[in-house]
Structure formats: C-alpha cells, structure tokens
Design a protein that fits this description.
Length: 770
C-alpha cells in the first residue's frame, strides 16, 4: 500500500528472483490500485477509457504509436500509462497553506516520491530574494516579474528556455517563437539527455533525425533487434506490437546487459493468452552483452556479412541498392574487415559462436528492423554505434522498404514533436528562414546552449534567467551537485509545472512556480474549448483533448502562460499575434502549417480520425545529408574499461517510475521491494570484490578530474547482469555522471557507461533517501 502524502517511504528491502515475464493480470491490478489511490473510480474510468482513443487524451507517459482507428483496443493503455495519467489526475492539491508549512529547505530534504505524492499545484507562487519560503503571487505580478527580469538582461543569451517532452506542439512552437523573437537560441530540451545521439547519427547517415519505421513495418518484419531498451517498463505498449509481429512470424533478438522481463515473455492482459495462458515469448535470442559493447557487436555482424558475400558473391548484400543509394561502402568494408575478433569478443563479452548465430538469423531474413533506446544513446561512442547500426541496415537494403528500418524508441510523449516545432539550439536555416518570412523578424542564427552547456554557463554566471516548460531539469541532468550549484547561481528560475518536484526546491535568488493545466484537463480559452497535438516516435501527429475539470480555477494552460509572458516582455517588437494564439490554438497551427514541412492544412487534417503522417524522405529514396545518399561510415571506437576492482555502471529506471519520478520504492519485475538505493551486481563480481548480499556500500565514480562523486548507502543485490557490469536507479545515481562525460559529437551525458568502485558504507537513515 502506498504511503499517505505526509509520510516518507520507510519499508525494509526485500529481494526476490527477477520475473521472467511482463504484464498479465498483475499489471491490471497494480494500475487500478495506484489509480484509485490517486483519484475516484469515476475519474479513473473517464481517463482510462478515453486514453489513446480518437479525440481522447494522449498518454503523457511515452511516445509509442497508436494503432489506426478501428484497430484500437477499448483499453488502449499500459500499466505505466494508467499510473501516469491518474498521477496527474490526482485529487490531492497543494495550496498556499502547504508552502506556509514547509520551507524550501525542508522540501529539499524530501524524497522525489514524497514531493510527487503531495498533489497538483494550484496557484502561482514566488520565492523572494533572501527568503526560504514560497508565497502566493498573482498571475499579473508573476508575468511582470518575469518580463522585468528578461528586459534587464544585458543580452538575450543570458536566458535559457528548457522544454520537456510533456509539452504540446502548440506550446513548444510558442516557446521557441518567443525565445527567438527575444533574440536567443538557448533552447535545451530533454532530448539533449536521451536521444541526441540518435539525431546526430541519423542526420549524418540518412539525412533525417527520426526513425524510418511505422507500426505496420514492425508487424511485418522478419527479424527485429531490441538493443539497449527495456520495453516492459519504459514503453510497454511496444510489447503489443512485438506480440503481433511474433504472431506474423517475426523473430526477435534482444541485446541487453540485463535479462529484462518484457524482453523474455509478454502476457497481454487484453487477450485470453495473456490472462489464463502462458503469453508469448518475445526474445528468440538473448545476447547478454557487456555495457557499451553494442558497437563491437554490429561491427562483428557486419564483418561476417561481408565474408558471407565473399563466399557467395551476389547472394548476400543488396548490391543494386548500395550502388544507387549509398556512398562510402568501400571505405567502410575495408575498415570492417580489419576489426580484430579478440577486440569484438572482449568488448561484447559474447562468444564468436553467438555472433555467428546472429549472422545466420540475418541471412534468413528479408526484412530487418533495429530498435534502440538509451542503452545505446548514453555512451561516449553512442554516435558511432548508431552509425554502425545504419551500416548494418544498409548492407542488405533494410531501409526504405516495408518491414525494415531504423527505430529509435523515444521515452517521452512529445519529445520528438518538440524538435519538429523548433525546440533545438541548432535549428537549420531553412526553419529560421521560414520563421522570418512568416513573422517578419530575423531569428538569431548562432547556435545556442544545449542542456550540458547550459549547466556550465549557469555555473560560470553567464546565465541569469532559467525557465522550464514542464520537466524536472535538476533531477534529469547529470552531475547533480554541480547542476544544483549552477541553478542556484541564477537570478531568477521559473517552472511551468503540474506537480511538485526537486527543481522547485533548487532555485535561483528569485523563483516562480507557474502551475499549468495537465493534459487530462479541459482547456477553455476565449474562442472556446481547445485541443493540442503531439507527435509520436513514428512521426505521426494527432490530437489530445482533456476531459476533466481543471484542478484549480487559477490554472493557466502552457500556451496561455507563454503567450502572456511574450506579450509582457516583447512589447509588440515582433509582429506576432500572441493574444490570438492564446484565444485559439488553431491560429498557432495555421502558422505551423506554413513553416513545418508535412503539416500543410494542419487544422483540417489533424481533426480527421487517426493522425497526420509526417514525410520521411528516406522512405522515398531521398537523403538530406551532406552527400545526398545514405552514408556508410568507418567507426573507430575505444573500449570501455574498468580497472581491477571497479565495475561499469549503468543508470536505469525502476518499473514503478516515470522519468525522474518514482511512484513507489518497488521494482516488481526485477524483484526489488522497499528501497531504490540498491546496486545490481553480478554474483561472481560480488564474490570477487569481497562484498556480501545486502551489504551497505557507497558508489564512487572514477573520472579524470579526480573529483570524488559519491552516491551514499546503497545495498548490494546479486543480479544476473553481465559480469563486470552493474546497474542502479536514476535520478539517485545522476550524481555519479560527470558533466564533462558526454557522447562524442552529440554532447549527451554518458549515463550508461560510468566506471565506479564500491566501498563499505555506514547505513544512513536520512528520510530524503527514501
């Protein structure tokens, strides 16, 4: 049973063997239990029965695509989506009395779970300079305070505007328009920390930053790779798509340091096979790979495919496609043939026989898809790894055809839409030119700051103003102590939020809480009830319409907050109809339709059942990269190495967690209950390091700057992770990720490849560690 809002979690750690299947009846039970603890049966029914339906509420939990209209289940949601939507729909409320009871310092000592459990924010609040408490402020005064601070900056580049994937397309477009009209490209977003590496690699090789597959492609593939992802917890509805693919005859290869339950077997609670039967096996082959060994794996597969072509000329590779649509094959092939097998096997921890078995699976398959997530993108060599995956797909023509392609699986509901709408510090000139033509001002051209560089600039005093549109920047970012120091350096920080989180307690000299409508709530503006749009992982744009009454009469929508701030700050210096945008979001979509390719006639097309499929040039044989063709690349790499007595740590989410917010201290599929401060270690490593099951240890990361980064008081849990590797939950372990430890080219934090040592610790009973 979940603790009452006033209590911190205080359960004893219990560990049971990890589950070997995901979902089933327990998923339904847990979803309903959590939902009914948050809100009423009526509201639970209203949210769940409209969730992911045509003209309903889009799930805020992840970005997985919906089946086409007429093919959706009446209960088109997963356990985690049900928890998340009703976590937002909670009937618990935070008002001024709450902030009179708790100072900012006291809130800062509370756990992430406790902060989230307090309920919905209901009125704007301000922390004044020198104060340790929030107090009420009117919306008019809040906008005045924000506008005054922005106008006082010596340069617009002293401001940073951060966006989370929770924002709608309309809000994201309004934010980037405001920032650029103000004069800055400082537009970091959560993609900087999750899939930036995918964008860089795919742009370079295929000319697009997005995936190239649809749900139909997944259903009709012969072979699907799931690499560095855990769909059972992070995007569970993908399991339904994989189930359909399996029923259609597909085979699945899972590549992961941990044998995640959802990769093994799926019991779909929406059919009899999942309720009373054994479900369906997902992974036909599981590669228990070493952290960061994925690049070496695909280089080994590619070398074997080249050698298979040597043995059977003309029968293995897609020669016509390679000649017509690609460039760089010869250089790639020469490099691939020179890869040393000892290096491949050491980096992956696999045997050559295991890699050869994968090659055989590939040779038997005409249509192949590779899916990946943050287990790939959060490594130093993430960009070359994804380029090597593209090499693999190109060799046998597995792009641009039905049932084939590259599938980066986004973990946040509209993070891809944010980028489409212009939330990027490096938007190309054609987008900026379109903004100029539409609105009559010249947007700034120099690249702005991403998330990591924003932290550096705040720490150095170069950023005075920080505004976050949703999200929990402090807990999403690496190097927690440095990030918090950086935020406290700002003159003003403001959070547009639905619920309380750590970022409200780590703030600038002046801090504002700007409470906003949730996606579940009806949005009534001057021209009537509004809907918003979002884009999923498969480049489909569709509507989301709230159903519940707002949690407070003082809540404003994200769009309204941004439009009113822009009006107060810009004083009409750009010809942008902010008042019209606030009154009618269709006016925003009209402008988007003339700026974003593929969204022409946006307002009419998006209201039809289904979604708008944005164009993907790759599927038309068009590659908008530097060479105008799909690019083979030669990818050098440096093997991740942990010195003797050290381990390679990856951070990960628990099952009962959404992004940075833990709902409970449990991780049902991994057999963990009662604590999040655990480190999962291979049993052989536990013995060799002289540790014991349940022992209290500190995790200390090893980095070249010699700064000690320590995560205190974790319990050792023997677990079937790859030998030499370990895993622990974020955000508790973000403190271990050095700010300077980033992926080459993409500047994305390397949260999946941290060298750590484990030292005995004295148990702590600090409530904030719950």
């Amino acid at each position: 049973m979940k603790k009452a809002p006033g209590d911190e979690p205080n359960e004893a750690l219990t560990v049971t063997p990890p589950k070997k299947w995901a979902a089933g009846v327990p998923a339904v039970v847990h979803a309903l239990e959590y939902s009914l603890e948050e809100t009423s049966p009526r509201r639970t029914g209203e949210t769940l029965l409209t969730m992911n339906q045509v003209d309903g509420i889009d799930c805020p939990g992840c970005a997985w695509a919906d089946p086409s209209p007429g093919h959706r289940h009446r209960n088109e949601y997963c356990e985690n989506g049900a928890k998340h939507i009703n976590d937002e729909a909670t009937t618990r409320r935070i008002n001024a009395d709450f902030f009179r009871k708790y100072t900012v310092s006291e809130l800062g000592r509370r756990s992430d779970a406790w902060l989230n459990q307090q309920g919905r924010l209901t009125e704007p609040m301000v922390k004044r300079p020198g104060s340790d408490s929030y107090e009420p402020i009117s919306w008019n005064d809040a906008f005045g305070l924000l506008a005054s601070e922005l106008k006082s900056l010596e340069s617009p580049d002293e401001a940073v505007f951060y966006t989370s994937g929770r924002a709608s397309n309309e809000a994201a477009f309004a934010l980037q328009l405001f920032a650029r009209a103000l004069g800055t490209n400082n537009l970091p977003d959560c993609s900087n920390m999750c899939h930036e590496s995918s964008g860089y690699a795919l742009h370079e090789t295929l000319g697009t930053g997005k995936g190239t597959v649809s749900l139909d492609d997944l259903h009709n593939a012969d072979l699907i790779f799931l690499v560095g992802q855990n769909p059972g917890s992070n995007h569970p509805r993908q399991l339904s798509a994989l189930e359909q693919a399996k029923l259609n005859g597909a085979r699945v290869i899972a590549v992961n340091p941990l044998p995640e339950a959802g990769l093994l077997r799926f019991k779909n609670p929406q059919n009899a096979r999942g309720v009373i039967g054994h479900g369906i096996q997902i992974a036909d082959r599981f590669l228990h790979i070493r952290n960061g060994g994925d690049l070496a794996l695909f280089q080994g597969i590619n070398r074997l495919l080249l050698e298979a072509e040597d043995a059977r000329p003309g029968e293995v590779l897609a020669h016509d496609f390679i000649r017509s649509d690609t460039k760089g094959f010869e250089e790639f092939a020469e490099h691939a043939r020179g890869i040393d097998w000892d290096d491949i096997l050491t980096a992956t921890g696999l045997t050559r026989e295991e890699v050869e078995q994968v090659r055989d699976e590939v040779l038997r398959s005409d249509r192949v898809i590779v899916c990946w997530a943050m287990g790939i993108t959060q490594h130093k060599h993430a960009v070359p790894t994804i380029r090597e995956i593209v090499n693999f797909l190109l060799l046998r023509g597995n792009v641009g055809r039905a049932g084939t392609g590259a599938c980066p699986v986004r973990g946040h509901s509209n993070v891809q839409g944010d980028r489409t709408m212009g939330i990027w510090e490096q938007m190309p000139d054609d987008f900026l030119d379109a903004l100029q033509a539409e609105f009559g001002f010249d947007p700034p051209r120099p690249h702005g700051l991403d998330s990591v560089n924003s932290i550096k600039a705040m720490r150095e005093g170069r950023i005075k103003f920080f505004l976050a549109l949703a999200g929990n920047f402090v807990r999403a970012a690496p190097d927690s102590e440095i990030t918090e120091e950086a935020m406290r350096n700002c003159r003003l920080t403001a959070q547009i939020s639905t619920k309380l989180n750590r970022s409200h307690t780590v703030c600038g000299e002046t801090a504002l809480i700007l409470p906003t409508l949730g996606r579940t709530e009806r949005d009534i503006q001057a021209d009537g009830e509004q809907f918003v749009t979002v884009e999923n992982s498969m480049s489909e744009v569709h509507t989301s319409r709230g159903r519940l009454q707002p949690g407070s009469s003082l809540l404003l929508s994200e769009v309204a907050i941004l439009c009113r701030l822009a009006r107060r700050t810009l004083d009409g210096t750009a010809d942008i109809p902010w008042e019209q945008f606030e009154a009618d979001y269709g006016a925003i979509r009209d402008r988007i339709s003339r700026i974003v390719p593929g969204l022409h006639d946006f307002n009419r097309r998006v209201t039809r059942p289904g979604s708008i499929q944005l164009p993907n040039p790759v599927n038309e044989g068009v590659y908008h990269n530097a060479v105008g063709k799909a690019l083979f690349t030669a990818n050098a790499w440096e093997m991740l190495h942990a010195p003797e007595g050290h381990l390679l740590l990856q951070t990960l989410r628990s099952h009962d967690q959404w992004n940075t917010v833990p709902y409970t201290s449990n991780d049902r599929y991994r057999g963990i209950r009662g604590s999040r401060r655990v480190v999962l270690v291979n049993p052989q490593d536990v013995a060799e390091l002289g540790l014991a099951e349940g022992q209290h240890v500190d995790l200390i990361s090893v980095w070249s700057d010699q700064v000690e980064r320590r995560a205190e008081d974790f319990r050792v849990v023997p677990y079937p992770t790859t030998k030499g590797c370990a895993a622990a939950y974020y955000p508790e372990t973000n403190v271990l990720v050095p700010l300077e430890s980033v992926a080459d080219k993409s500047n994305q934090p390397t949260s999946k490849g941290i060298v750590v040592r484990l030292e005995p610790a004295t148990p702590r009973r600090d409530a904030a560690q719950g």
